[in-house]
Design goal:
Blueprint (H helix, E strand, L loop, with lengths): L1 H23 L9 E6 L12 H11 L5 E6 L1 H9 L4 E7 H4 L8 E3 L5 E9 L18 E4 L16 E3 L2 H9 L5 E6 L1 H8 L6 E3 L8 E9 L2 H20 L1 H6 L6 H8 L6
Parallel strand pairs: 1-2, 1-3, 6-7, 6-8
Antiparallel strand pairs: 3-10, 4-10, 5-8, 5-9, 5-10
């Protein structure tokens, strides 16, 4: 009798447990916290600027259930941290640029955010001079951001270009006549000019130098957690583009994928 009683109690407990599971619905998959390594950009991604990419990150993660630990650091460090941690993601980055150091099949990427381009900047006094080609200038009088790999694709003269640590110093040296032109990333240089309260100080080439463009997205390692992160982020990116809020968040200097289609007659791909 005692054995029958105990078996009956077990059966009742199992029934109630099953009922509880059914009432609770399907059990959601548990995803780990994501380490998001951010490439520090002084005029738009610092974690404190409330500008551009900083605002974008807040907009994206406010609308998701992702748990994200964010850390901004210089490019080389952020890239090293990402490559050494398969549970992490990286932003902002061009997938094509990342393929130089990571296997394409080992990473997954989000929809495009915006496009960074290489532009040529000159003093406003050169208003009558065409300057869509870097070859118009003495290479020893052309500056660029130190550490930028974009100039390497501009021919052998790039070795003569002058590396300068920051946009502010490039702007100042051009203003003082120590440089005739410099290669800058757009929209970073435009934002630097705004921060200096001198938005009209320089002329900028109307087209990108040698058509150098970097479509920007999030990237993660190709894992279950990485794919989940990208799916969640993509939903927010698409919503921001669809509602037109991406322009509000990134501001007037951002070059969006639709802008690129208008400018070059074809969609910019990753």
């Amino acid at each position: 009798m005692n054995t029958l009683y105990r078996n009956a109690r077990r059966l009742i407990a199992i029934v109630f447990l099953a009922m509880g599971l059914n009432l609770a619905g399907p059990v959601a998959a548990a995803y780990a916290e994501t380490d998001l390594h951010l490439i520090y950009l002084p005029h738009r991604l610092t974690e404190t600027s409330n500008k551009q990419y900083d605002r974008l990150l807040d907009e994206i993660f406010t609308g998701t259930e992702l748990t994200v630990a964010r850390e901004a650091s210089p490019m080389k460090r952020a890239l090293t941290l990402f490559l050494s941690d398969r549970n992490s993601c990286l932003f902002p980055i061009s997938v094509k640029a990342l393929h130089a150091v990571a296997e394409p099949d080992a990473i997954v990427s989000s929809d495009l955010i915006d496009i960074v381009s290489l532009r040529l900047y000159t003093p406003t006094g050169d208003a009558e001079k065409a300057f869509t080609s870097v070859d118009d200038f003495d290479p020893k009088r052309v500056g660029y951001i130190a550490g930028s790999g974009t100039v390497q694709g501009l021919g052998p003269k790039h070795e003569l270009f002058v590396p300068i640590p920051s946009e502010e110093q490039l702007i100042r040296m051009l203003e003082l006549g120590r440089l005739d032109a410099f290669l800058g990333h757009h929209p970073d240089t435009a934002l630097a000019l705004e921060d200096l309260n001198r938005p009209g100080l320089l002329r900028v080439s109307p087209i990108t130098v040698s058509n150098v463009r970097f479509p920007i997205s999030f990237v993660c390692h190709d894992t279950a957690d990485g794919r989940h992160f990208i799916e969640e982020v993509n939903a927010r990116i698409r919503q921001l583009h669809q509602d037109g809020d991406i322009r509000r968040v990134l501001g007037p200097h951002a070059n969006l994928p639709t802008d690129a289609e208008d400018a070059i007659g074809a969609q910019v791909s990753q």
